[in-house]
Amino acid sequence: MILHVDMDAFFASVEQRSDPRLLGRPVLVCGDPDGRSVVAAASYEARPFGVKAGMPIDTARRLCPHAELVPGDPSKYVALSHRILEVLKEFSPLVEPMSIDEAFLDLQGTSHDGDRAPRAALELQRRVESRFSLTCSIGLGPNKLIAKMGSSIRKPRGFTSLTVESYRKHFWPQPVSALWGIGEQTEHALKSIGIVTLSDLAHAPEALLSATFGVNGPRLRFAARGEDESAVVPYFQGIANKSMGHEHTLDRDEDHREALEALLVTLSDQVTRRMRKECYLGRTVVLKIRTSDFKTRTRQHALEEYTDEPRAVAHWARLLLRAHWNGKPVRLLGVSMAELVPWKGAAHRPLFAEDRRYRKMVKAVDRARDRFGESSLLRAVSLRMGNRTEPVDRSLNPARDPPRNLA
Amino acid sequence: MLEALNQPVEVLSLFAEGKMKPLRFRWRGRVVRVRRVTGEWVRQEGIGRVHYFSLVSEGSDYFELAYDIDQTNWRICRVWLEG
What is the pLDDT of residue A241? Predict the structure, then answer.
């Protein structure tokens, strides 16, 4: 049997746990409360007002004016997430963290499998709550898909056990959007071929699905039937990163190309810095643009060679912007690298002297940042928009660590 | 509201069994006694590690303190002020 553990309103609950005066009050975790960030998490007290994650702060403030806005602190959530994982490992060695606040456990081969699984789930819930004063909702099922779908049925502090039959009874009358992994675009595409409910999808002709979605068509039908053969991948085996990216919501909508390109340089620098730290090379540069009308578009370009250097990524990000930006004021920009491959320090020596010098410079900057923090060296181009576009790194303390001149 | 401070602060703390715990600190001319540590986490800042603590005082105020291992100093990072 598989358990899916989903922490209830994790970020908001952690803040309520840290500061007990927030308990019972609507709490919104966000970036800069005075800026234009979005809601990262809303406590259950805020949700009846229609506030949800991903919503701009201004909108959330209008819906729930008495909500407490708390700037999020990722390192706090990561630290607690690791401690919670230790509790999950008391029930099974096969624990797959799905995100900072969700994980799968495979109980097969443990003393908690079979008829004992529901009791184990409730005991797990109790231990998490007693040790961390945080609640979680748990789904129990024969596979990851059903367990994941089950944990969403009752929240917060819910427990739902489903078989394939009870999964079908509960979910088949529901719209296709209820299926894990189906987003807005897929939902629209399914509706356009007359598939509205999960029952429709489970009984749809395979040829029709293949013609519309290619190889993913039959997979969708498979999932709608509650079938899933994917294994729980233990945390210690790691999960290869498929992409890495950084994005930034501007303090105000921006329509100067030069300023946007300056931000792209900074974002490319951050992405490639992370890739070098985690030993990855990437081949596809992905640009994300969200304009003031909240329309988001992503465009990508495949490079001829794999790279982890900021210069190449920034160059192609800028070209993508020039080719695909419609000139409307920009609210958010993002740069990602996809098609990542792990790279363990094998020879990566550039052919030309100038490139070798550049590589040396990148390494020197990395060493300085390792030692003095990420804000110790900034690219001059990032100053083109003053402090407005410099993305905030919450691990920094500019008041204490002003940029140093290392020359 | 939550106010960001980032000011040096004198803290009396207990170091025992491989852990540390702030017990009281001097802030704005008065001694604040810690009633309960509600959270702790570590953040890497350059090569340095900084230990953060969220806590509630005996007066039911909320504070976040940080101990920088390299600099061996404490800072008061955030405080909750009503109104």
Answer: 62
Give me the torsion for CA of B6, B7, B10, B12, rounded to 10°: -10
Structural contact between residues A27 and A67, judged by C-beta atoms closer than 8 angstroms: yes
Contact B42 A19 (CB under 8 A): no
pLDDT in tens, B42-53: 887 777 889 999
Which residue's entry shows tokens 């094998």?
A346
Q: What is the ipTM of this complex?
A: 0.74
Same domain, A270 and A380: yes
Indicate yes or no: CB of B45 within 8 angstroms of CB of A20. Answer: no
Domain CATH for A255: 3.30.1490.100
- Cα A356 to its chain centre, rounded Å, is 35
Does any CB of chain B come closer than 8 Å to the CB of residue A397?
yes
CATH of the domain at A193: 1.10.150.20
- Mind telling me the catalytic residues of A? 102
Q: How far is B57 from chain A (nearest CA, A)?
A: 11
Per residue in A95-133, pLDDT (tens digit) is 999 888 999 999 998 888 888 999 999 999 999 999 999
A20 touches B: beta carbon within 8 Å:
yes
Q: Is the pLDDT of residue A319 over 90?
A: yes
Domain count, chain A: 2
**Interchain CB distance below 8 Å, B56 and A78:** no
Residue A210 is part of which domain span?
167-224
Residues of chain A with C-beta less than 8 angstroms from the C-beta of B63: none
Partners of B56 on chain A (C-beta within 8 Å) are: 19-20
Cβ–Cβ contact A372 with B under 8 A: yes
Flag if B80 and A19 touch (Cβ within 8 Å): yes
Map tokens 């709550």 to a residue: A129
Tell me, yes or no, whether A255 lies in a domain: yes
Residues of chain A neighbouring B47 (CB-CB closer than 8 A): 370-372
Return the SS3 of B43: strand
d(Cα B25, Cα B44) in Å, to the nearest integer?
24
Q: Which residue of B has its CA nearest to A16?
A: B38
What mean pLDDT, rounded, does chain A reach?
87
Contacts 24+ apart (CB under 8 A), A169-178: A171/A198, A171/A226, A172/A197, A172/A198, A172/A199, A172/A202, A172/A224, A173/A197, A173/A198, A173/A199, A174/A198, A176/A200, A176/A201, A176/A224, A178/A149
The residue that leads in pLDDT, A406 or A131, is A131
